[in-house]
């Protein structure tokens, strides 16, 4: 995981021996602006140079330090080797092979010279050898001590050698031992039961591990010192999120307590009964909305678990109380679909539903603005356009954000700010179909309360997924014909192939033409990102009315599209897509009572990772399991989308590697908030920084 540093701009405060203007410039390239930053610049590897080994005992493939006398030198005239040097110690002989030799090194390559070398031991044509080892010339009759510590290897940059970084960190460690840096913040009562060392001890340790420590142990990040650093960092992040949540939840919001007439009416008219999970989640939301502080709740539910109804119920509670409610979707297509659904559901109840997106024409937009300002529209569905500068709401009490995984902490905070009315904040409900693995939820969504819809509506048959080579495309086309002749409908998804939207649309267009040629008696439709929203809406409408049998699409249909009669999905080039995207796409089928199928078409050759993903998809339909595997395969930054990566970059922690620590961190965070609130601020400042997204409410 990438390492994040405080952005201390005042570079003159560096004040470390050995750091002049030039070095400071190089350090800045590593985001190091202070002694603290330098000490948080942790080694990524370590070498053991603490023992001198006998040549006879060397193991091929190991890195080792040897010391010996140069016996013979030769300069082969073939190959890259400039210099071949025979080195003897009391136990045997080996060769050192050099590709280039600098003039000041000439002394080292004379018979009789004593050298100490460090490199990987290899088996060459003439026996054991080291290729271009690091070496030190030892003057006659002198000895140099071996290293007392394992050698740290730091992330480096041009102009800053490992040697220089070691020298600078040595100086910085000196400063740390002598003065106030890295004061202990965590109380002894919390550290002791975990057997953690102090912060200073931990920092000293990771930069200069004692020679007895196993390098492999260090690399696994399992030492108490390493764990201690990770612990404090994740603790600080968690506390800062909880802090943010607390600050927000002490604000005022309207308590939506009036009797739920519309809600009841709506439920009576629904053609289905809510699942137990839906009932539970709806009840949790209802309680939140009745309080005078803003709700901040995340609803997780796998694709098709029925989140839209939950949103509608919450919005009706606002309308029942005479307030407005907004629903924001991440794409035009999804916003429009929600709009249609909500109009169907709510207009018969006498509620006026409005729509707003970037594509709405200026004249219409004006009318919508007016309706929102005059409280003529009670429910508004749209995209980001809902929170543009010039939109004012008469009395907005609830904001629902669908498919939340695309928004980060910062964006959530911003949204709340925008929704802020004269005296109160709106309640906020966020819904995601990308289940968030527990690890991520704890660290990344700690500012939200969480409800889970862990049950699908009854009568769904699980989707059967098969993985088929593109070479067998003909068979797949035959399957489409069979399915459509039985009255079913099919999606054919062409995922992003080029970086360019235009080329992708071309690819989808071509595919649809080809498929139409093969399937003359079927109606093949096409939808992609380059079409206007009116065109897209027309196609979707035709598809949901069954006029289109086979819909060829780019990944624009990824989220939220709902056509229950579609029971077959083909995903082309499935090997290029990530797990969560595949799962989202697949979730477009399996929405009706008939058995659904998903065919993942792939192109040779498959990478190991792609193979793994396709296997996971074939083996499970469980979104939570898929999300966990996705997290393991790709890492948290990727799973949450690039926008959030910044929020998830830690100095020392790695959410996947260190997930075992999280339960303890959760407990400790609560204790600190309750009993040690004086350390909250310095702790957040040390690890999370001050001018950042967490600090603001
Ligand atoms: P998602 O959670 O993916 O947003 P939707 O809200 O789009 O799911 O719901 C998927 C489909 O299931 C819709 O057609 C919806 O009307 C239907 N549905 C939702 N809840 C139930 C239920 N309790 N019983 C039957 N069908 C339901
Ligand atoms: Mg949805």
Draw up the topology in text.
Layout: H1 21-29, H2 35-40, E1 45-47, E2 63-74, E3 83-89, E4 92-98, E5 114-120, E6 122-124, E7 127-131, E8 134-138, E9 151-153, H3 162-178, H4 188-191, H5 199-207, H6 215-219, H7 224-249, H8 261-269, H9 276-289, E10 296-301, H10 307-320, E11 324-328, H11 332-346, E12 353-356, H12 362-373, E13 379-382, E14 396-402, H13 409-419, E15 427-432, H14 438-444, E16 449-453, E17 464-469, H15 473-485, E18 489-493, H16 501-518, E19 524-527, H17 533-544, E20 550-553, E21 566-571, H18 579-586, E22 597-602, H19 608-619, H20 623-634, H21 636-640, H22 642-645, H23 662-675, H24 680-688
Parallel strand pairs: 4-7, 10-15, 10-16, 11-13, 11-14, 12-13, 14-15, 17-22, 18-20, 18-21, 19-20, 21-22
Antiparallel strand pairs: 1-9, 2-3, 2-5, 3-4, 5-8, 6-7
Helix pairs in contact: 3-5, 5-7, 7-23, 7-24, 8-10, 9-10, 19-20
The structure holds adenosine-5'-diphosphate and magnesium ion.
């Amino acid at each position: 995981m990438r390492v994040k540093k405080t952005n201390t701009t005042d570079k003159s405060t560096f004040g470390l021996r050995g750091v002049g203007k030039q070095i400071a410039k190089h350090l800045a390239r590593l985001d190091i602006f202070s002694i603290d930053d330098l000490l948080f610049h942790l080694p990524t590897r370590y070498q053991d140079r603490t023992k001198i080994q006998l040549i006879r005992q060397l193991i091929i493939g190991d890195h080792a330090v040897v010391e010996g006398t140069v016996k013979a030198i030769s300069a082969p005239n073939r190959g890259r080797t400039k210099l071949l040097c025979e080195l003897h110690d009391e136990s045997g002989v080996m060769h050192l092979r050099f590709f280039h030799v600098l003039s000041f090194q000439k002394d080292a390559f004379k018979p009789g010279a004593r050298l100490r070398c460090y490199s990987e031991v290899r088996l060459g044509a003439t026996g054991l050898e080291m290729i271009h080892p690091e070496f030190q010339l030892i003057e006659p009759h002198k000895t140099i001590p071996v290293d007392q510590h394992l050698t740290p290897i730091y992330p480096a940059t041009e102009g800053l050698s490992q040697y220089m970084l070691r020298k600078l960190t040595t100086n910085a460690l000196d400063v740390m031992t002598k003065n106030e840096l890295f004061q202990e913040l965590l109380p002894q009562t919390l550290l002791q039961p975990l057997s953690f060392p102090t912060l200073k001890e931990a920092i000293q340790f990771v930069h200069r591990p004692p020679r007895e420590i196993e390098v492999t142990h260090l690399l696994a990040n399992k030492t108490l010192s390493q764990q201690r650093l990770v612990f404090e960092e994740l603790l600080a992040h968690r506390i800062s999120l909880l802090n943010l949540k607390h600050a927000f939840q002490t604000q005022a919001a309207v308590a939506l307590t009036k009797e739920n007439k519309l809600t009841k009416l709506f439920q009576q008219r629904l053609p289905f009964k809510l699942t137990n999970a839906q009932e539970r989640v709806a009840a949790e939301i209802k309680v939140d909305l009745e309080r005078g502080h803003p709700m901040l709740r995340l609803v997780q539910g796998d694709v098709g678990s029925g989140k839209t109804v939950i949103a509608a119920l919450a919005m009706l509670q606002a309308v029942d109380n005479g307030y407005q409610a907004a629903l924001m979707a991440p794409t035009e297509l999804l916003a429009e679909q929600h709009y249609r659904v909500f109009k169907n559901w709510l207009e018969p109840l006498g509620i006026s539903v409005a729509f707003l997106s970037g594509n709405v024409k200026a004249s219409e937009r004006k009318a919508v603005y007016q309706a929102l300002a005059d409280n003529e529209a009670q429910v508004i569905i749209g995209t980001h356009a809902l929170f543009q500068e010039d939109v004012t709401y008469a009395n907005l009490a609830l904001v629902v954000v669908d498919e939340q995984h695309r928004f980060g902490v910062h964006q959530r905070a911003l949204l709340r700010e925008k929704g802020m009315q004269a005296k109160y904040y709106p309640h906020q409900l966020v819904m995601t179909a990308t289940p968030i693995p527990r690890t991520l939820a704890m660290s990344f969504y700690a500012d939200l309360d969480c409800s889970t819809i862990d049950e699908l509506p009854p009568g769904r048959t699980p989707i059967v997924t098969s993985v088929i080579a593109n070479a067998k495309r003909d068979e797949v086309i035959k399957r489409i014909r069979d399915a459509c002749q039985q009255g079913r409908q099919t999606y054919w998804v062409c995922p992003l192939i080029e970086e360019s939207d235009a080329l992708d649309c071309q690819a989808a267009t071509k595919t649809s033409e080809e498929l139409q040629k093969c399937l003359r008696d079927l109606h093949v439709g096409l939808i992609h990102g380059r079409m206007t929203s009116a065109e897209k809406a027309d196609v979707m409408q035709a598809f949901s009315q069954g006029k289109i049998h086979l819909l060829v699409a780019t990944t624009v249909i990824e989220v939220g599209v709902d056509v229950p009669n579609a029971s077959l999905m083909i995903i082309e080039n499935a090997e290029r897509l990530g797990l969560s995207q595949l799962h989202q796409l697949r979730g477009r089928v399996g929405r009706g009572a008939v058995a659904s199928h998903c065919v993942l078409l792939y192109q040779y050759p498959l990478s190991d990772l792609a193979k793994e993903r396709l296997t996971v998809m074939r083996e499970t339909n469980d979104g939570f399991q898929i999300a966990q595997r996705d997290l393991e395969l790709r890492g948290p930054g990727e799973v949450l989308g690039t926008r959030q990566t910044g929020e998830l970059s830690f100095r020392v922690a790695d959410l996947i590697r260190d997930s075992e620590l999280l339960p303890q961190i959760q407990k400790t965070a609560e204790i600190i908030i309750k009993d040690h609130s004086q350390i909250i601020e310095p702790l957040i400042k040390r690890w999370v920084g001050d001018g950042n997204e967490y600090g603001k409410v």
